[in-house]
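debug: dumping io for the single-chain case to check the tokenizer round-trip. Nothing else runs in this session.
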Amino acid sequence: MVVEQVKGRLVRCCSGLLVGLAMSGAAAAAVEGNASLTSDYVWRGSSQSDGDPAAQAGVKLTSSRGWYASAWGSGVSFQPDNGARSEFDLVAGWSGAVANDWAVDVNLTRYLYPSANVDLDWTELNGTLTWQQRYWLQVGVSDNALAGGHGGTYAQLGARLPLGEAWRLEGAIGHYWLDSAQSDDYLHGQLSAVWRVHGPWELRLTAHDTDRAAQRLFPGNAGSRVEFALQTTF
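debug: decoded output
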């Protein structure tokens, strides 16, 4: 009930944000985009593209006061095949500094799979606390986690380490607490090496691993895997 109340308030607030941005014009907002081509779309330790490459792109509109709305899409493929070929994430929220070196991002994310022949759409309330833009703690809560009809809480602790101007390392470990009626909880980790090739263009190599609970939940799409991606912002 609490989650539903918070989601309702965020939806009303973000609806007002979008109207306000539209009325105030481009001078009060910034627009940025991103695009990537990855050898395997891996999300929270599990492949969302059945181990195949995926093209991805997104756009984000941010107001001068920190409110934002974004849309992001990727190709997907699941086993057993449920007809899903694309995923669209619609996000509305607020981000900004709350103290020296500390920043917060709170948002509502709606995951959509328009071509699926079963109902895979679901919503999650997310919050991320960042320190010095290098360390973060993310928590996501949903009463319909993974569109499974049960509650779930996800937490991720991560860090990035710059290695000069062109290189950096990024690592994270995440844990998904799922309702026992849906699945066992599972743990995953990832480690990335990122090379800024030229301007906004980057190459990312990421090693992923999960525990056995994830492999039981996502047979064939969890466990150890390597992802290679070319990414950019504009």
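debug: round-trip ok. The CA atoms of residues 13 and 27 lie 21 Å apart.
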